[in-house]
User: What shape does this take?
Amino acid sequence: MRELMRTTPNLFKNPHRRRNLAGRLIWRIAWGLLFRPTPWFMGAWRTWLLRRFGARLGHARFNATAEVWAPWRLEAGDHVAVDRNVSLYNAYGIKLGDRVIISQGAFLCSATHDYRDPCYALAGGCITVEDDCWIAAEAFIGPGVTIGKGAVVGARAVVVKDVPAWTVVAGNPARVIRDRVLREVPPGNPMNEPLT
Ligand SMILES: CC(C)(COP(=O)(O)OP(=O)(O)OC[C@H]1O[C@@H](n2cnc3c(N)ncnc32)[C@H](O)[C@@H]1OP(=O)(O)O)[C@@H](O)C(=O)NCCC(=O)NCCS
Assistant: This one.
């Protein structure tokens, strides 16, 4: 290892620009003091705070234990719920559509390292979760992956390839286990009424 460090002096150099490092330091302090200690009912405050740091959010709610690496690289639509211990590592950006649920402990990981490069250059791609998706507990979503509209990712799935719309995927590596077919919502059901 020592030999590797001597011949490749940049091996442990942080690849991020100073502006990014400074921004993340300030965000991390704000997260620790103003986001993480807040009780469950202060979701609107947490959304407001993320917006102040550049997140483009509709009506989205984040649990106090959810971690966002860089809010200025996060987009989310309306009726989005991000649950306990979710980690959004959005070095390359993360886009969440409308009516998206991210369950407990899921890890959306937009960056990786080029292991052919002796300096492990940063690599990756934006993760897109389209409308009406559910990412179940402790799923891993890899860099550059698109989860197609209406898809469900099962608990603890490892997803490194795009997921087709309206399918349910599970396992490691994640595979389609069935199509997702929605039931009719009966008339008179409040789900049919507009949200006021
Ligand atoms: C993915 C999921 C929604 C699928 O539910 P389902 O359609 O009822 O699927 P089934 O239970 O009928 O299972 C179908 C097959 O997929 C497998 N499977 C289901 N979920 C799986 C998972 N998470 N990982 C690996 N395999 C899974 C089953 O073993 C079964 O395999 P078989 O056909 O060889 O017997 C569900 O299993 C799941 O992961 N739920 C998430 C729960 C969660 O995260 N809750 C926290 C938020 S409230």
